[in-house]
């Protein structure tokens, strides 16, 4: 059924109902490498894409399929592809469209790992990433030329937290025939970028979707709302020598507007091999079931922490969308039902005091993760963003004294008590 509400989709969305052979209500973990063909004709039809079905877990798996179809429905997309990490998802999003000599335009407001991938590793493959400040959406247009294959940004950037103007930038991109790809990791349920005009959405499922800090994974959702037939997209609309000259926009037309995600599965996943493990897909399905409920508590707690820290004598500045005013608040209004649970702040006494504060925390974990049910803290300049230059750190919102918190779902009084004792230490 086409459920409309995230609370219902998280439990019932996608391909899985009860398992057809056993009746299992929970999605079974199909921990198998390969799947038995019915006969040689069946095998040939699957390989020839005349029929979709399971062949080999590097390319598809029923447990992963249950997660893919459920998250595709949650995001309002047509199909999804689960991969081994958020980093793999981002890399695949870009590599699915780019060849050596091409470029993409990306927001500067990025997770440090994505920055590194774009600034250094993509360069190794001849793909240039042009970074622009999203304060002015027209910066994306100005940086675009005939070899620009996509635009990339984070909805609620980690750790800058200045909400991205998805509708404005997506509309500018559509005028030029350039798709906007959104990393929606920090705003699941709160924002649906595809509905605002983005063409593709990705998540690090490692974070809020998993929600319990147990598994690494990523997912790409195809919006099915973009025309890939122009000269910008030869990987999708020119004959592919790796698949008997298939033209993806034509070859899979009967399956719907899924050329982008099918090509990612049949070529990138086949050749580069970064699949999500079925066991991890099961863990993410478990997390997904309570995601809407957890987001409510995450967001309510984060609002209270933001207000508390903003009134604290030792705190110089708090960065959380619940406190924004003016244009930043207008942009944050695309988040529905809460402002996310990432929050940053600086102490008046500076960077050293920030480090001392993190070390004094007793309940918060000091870890390189976000979106866990537990509250977490880190100092980005010396950890997640340490491989960036000082200038690059500043562009992505990391100042030397910036402390990033990921507020969990514990009782708010215990969260505040731990923050207060660490501030007093
Ligand atoms: N995107 C964002 C916004 C992230 O915060 C992260 C990781 O922190 C990633 C992508 C990469 O995800 P993963 O660690 O699952 O590779």
Notable features of this structure?
single chain; 425 residues; alpha/beta; Aspartate Aminotransferase, domain 2; Aspartate Aminotransferase, domain 1; 2 domains; 15 helices; binds pyridoxal-5'-phosphate
Give the termini separation.
54 Å
CATH architecture assignment name of the largest domain? 3-Layer(aba) Sandwich
Strand segment count = 12
What is the CATH class designation of the largest domain?
Answer: Alpha Beta
Protein model, in words:
By secondary structure, the protein is α/β, with parallel strands linked by helices. The chain has two domains: 6-279, Aspartate Aminotransferase, domain 2 (3-Layer(aba) Sandwich); 292-424, Alpha-Beta Complex (Aspartate Aminotransferase, domain 1), CATH 3.90.1150. It contains 15 helices and twelve strands. The protein has helices at residues 6-12, 40-47, 62-75, 86-95, 112-124, 138-142, 166-176, 234-237, 248-251, 259-272, 278-310, 326-332, 351-360, 390-395, 412-424; strands at 79-83, 103-107, 128-132, 148-154, 180-183, 200-204, 218-222, 315-319, 342-347, 365-366, 376-378, 403-406. A seven-stranded mixed sheet has the order 1-7-6-5-4-2-3, with helices on both faces. The chain has a five-stranded mixed sheet with strand order 8-9-12-11-10. α3 runs parallel beside α11 and α13 packs across α15 (412-424). The mean pLDDT is 96. The chain binds pyridoxal-5'-phosphate. Pyridoxal-5'-phosphate (PLP) binds next to α4 and α5.
């Amino acid at each position: 059924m086409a459920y409309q509400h995230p609370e219902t989709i998280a439990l019932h969305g996608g391909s899985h109902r009860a398992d057809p052979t056993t009746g299992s209500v929970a999605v079974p973990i199909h921990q198998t490498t390969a799947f038995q063909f019915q006969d040689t004709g069946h095998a040939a039809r699957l390989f020839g894409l005349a029929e979709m079905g399971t062949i080999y877990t590097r390319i598809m798996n029923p447990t992963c399929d249950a997660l893919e179809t459920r998250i595709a429905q949650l995001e309002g997309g047509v199909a999804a592809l689960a991969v081994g990490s958020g980093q793999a998802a981002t890399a695949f999003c870009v590599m699915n469209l780019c060849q050596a000599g091409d470029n993409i335009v990306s927001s500067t407001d990025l997770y440090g790992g994505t920055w590194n991938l774009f600034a250094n590793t993509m360069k190794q493959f001849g793909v240039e990433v042009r970074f622009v400040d999203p304060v002015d959406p027209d910066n994306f247009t100005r940086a675009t030329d005939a070899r620009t294959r996509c635009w990339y940004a984070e909805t609620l950037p980690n750790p800058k937290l200045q909400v991205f103007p998805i509708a404005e930038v997506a509309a500018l991109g559509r005028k030029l025939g350039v798709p906007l790809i959104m990393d929606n990791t920090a705003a699941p349920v709160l924002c649906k970028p595809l509905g605002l005009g983005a063409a593709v959405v990705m998540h690090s499922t490692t974070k809020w979707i998993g929600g319990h800090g147990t598994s690494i994974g990523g997912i790409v959702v195809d919006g099915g709302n973009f025309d890939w037939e122009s000269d910008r997209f030869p990987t999708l609309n020119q004959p592919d020598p790796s698949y008997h000259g298939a033209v993806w926009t034509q070859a899979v037309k009967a399956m719907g507007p899924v050329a982008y995600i099918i090509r990612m599965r049949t070529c990138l996943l086949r050749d580069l091999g970064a699949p999500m493990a079925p066991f991890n897909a099961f863990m993410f399905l478990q997390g997904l079931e309570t995601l809407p409920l957890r987001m409510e508590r995450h967001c309510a707690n984060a609002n209270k922490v933001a207000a508390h820290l903003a009134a604290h004598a030792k705190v110089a500045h708090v960065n959380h969308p619940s406190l924004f005013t003016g244009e930043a608040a207008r942009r944050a209004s695309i988040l529905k039902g809460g402002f996310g649970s990432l929050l940053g702040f600086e102490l008046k006494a500076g960077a050293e005091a920030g480090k001392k504060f993190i070390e004094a925390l007793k309940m918060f974990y000091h870890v390189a993760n976000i979106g866990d049910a537990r509250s977490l803290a880190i100092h980005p300049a010396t950890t997640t963003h340490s491989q960036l230059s000082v200038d690059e750190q500043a562009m992505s919102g990391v100042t030397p004294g910036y402390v990033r918190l990921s507020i969990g779902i514990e009782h708010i009084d215990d969260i505040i008590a731990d923050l207060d004792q660490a501030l007093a230490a």
